[in-house]
Structure formats: C-alpha cells, structure tokens
Design goal:
The chain has 162 residues and is α+β, with helices and mostly antiparallel strands. The protein has five helices and eight strands, in the order ααββββββαββαα. It has one domain: Sandwich (Jelly Rolls), CATH 2.60.120.10. The termini are far apart.
C-alpha cells in the first residue's frame, strides 16, 4: 500500500467516524471532509486517561470505538461514553480547563479535533457553526437532564433515610 493510499484510507475512516457522530447532524459532506483533514486518531488502552480534570486542553473529541467513563472530581464514574458520542464539549465551548476526567473503560479509539483549526473552520462557515452549536447544545441538554435525574434520585434516597 502506498503512502497516498494509506492516507486516503485514514481520511475515509475519519470522515466515517465524524459523519456517524451526534456532532455531525446536518453537516455537509464537504464540511465533514474538512473536519477530518484537521483531525487525528489516538488509541487508549483500558484504564488510561483520555483527559484529566483541570487539564488545559480544549480540543473536541469523538469516541470511535470502545467505551469510556466520565469521572467526577472525586474519581467516581458519573457517566459512560459510547461510540459516536462527542465529548470534551464543555472545555471546547468555554475554553476553560477540563471539568472532569475521562478514562478508557475498554480499549478505545478516539478522534481528536484540535481546537484552533476547528474554531477557524466554524468561523469561516457560519451555517455549519450554527449546526455544530445546536448539536452540542442538544448533547449538553441531554447530559444536564440525566444529571438532574441522578440528583433527584439521590435526594429521594436521602429523604428516605432521614
């Protein structure tokens, strides 16, 4: 296999990962290809941290294969990430340090979209930027609803034991 063929295969894999994620709903094929061109794949063995709480990195990621856990500051698992799910959106959006850790629960393949090139793509393509923000907002709202349900369940347990 030539270098060009290998590059094209990797680019195709990246495009497929992006296209199948929740992030890409409504994206054009051209925009997906542009995101793929600025992205990379990293492998994380089970037990390895993908990101750590307070890490200054602000890139956006998509879990391509495997499962990962989002850990609270205490180290307790608070959610699982499954394939096609974007993560790292909070730090990407607010440009602040990571608010939680993510650890590979099984061997994982993660697509990483570096912040600055992605922001530049979004800046020059406002229609795609709006779609990305709507998709990320929907994801954040889903996660907030789940967190609210978990808090309500914990409060109910506390009230029961009082």
């Amino acid at each position: 296999m030539t270098v060009a063929e290998n590059y094209n295969d990797v680019l195709m894999d990246l495009k497929q990962i992006i296209a199948s994620s929740y992030l890409a709903k409504g994206f054009t094929e051209e925009f997906i290809a542009q995101i793929a061109a600025i992205s990379e794949i990293r492998n994380f063995p089970a037990g390895e941290y993908v990101v750590r709480v307070d890490d200054p990195s602000t890139h956006l990621m998509i879990l391509a294969e495997g499962t990962a856990e989002i850990l609270a500051v205490t180290g307790d698992p608070i959610a699982y990430i499954k394939p096609n799910m974007p993560f790292g959106e909070v730090s990407f959006l607010d440009r602040r340090r990571r608010s939680s850790s993510v650890v590979a629960h099984t061997d994982c393949k993660v697509l990483i979209m570096n912040e600055e090139p992605l922001r530049e793509l979004l800046r020059v393509q406002p229609e795609m930027a709006v779609r990305a923000l709507v998709n990320l907002s929907t994801l954040l709202c889903d996660r907030l609803r789940k967190a609210n349900q978990q808090i309500a369940a914990l409060n109910a347990i506390e009230e029961f034991h009082v």
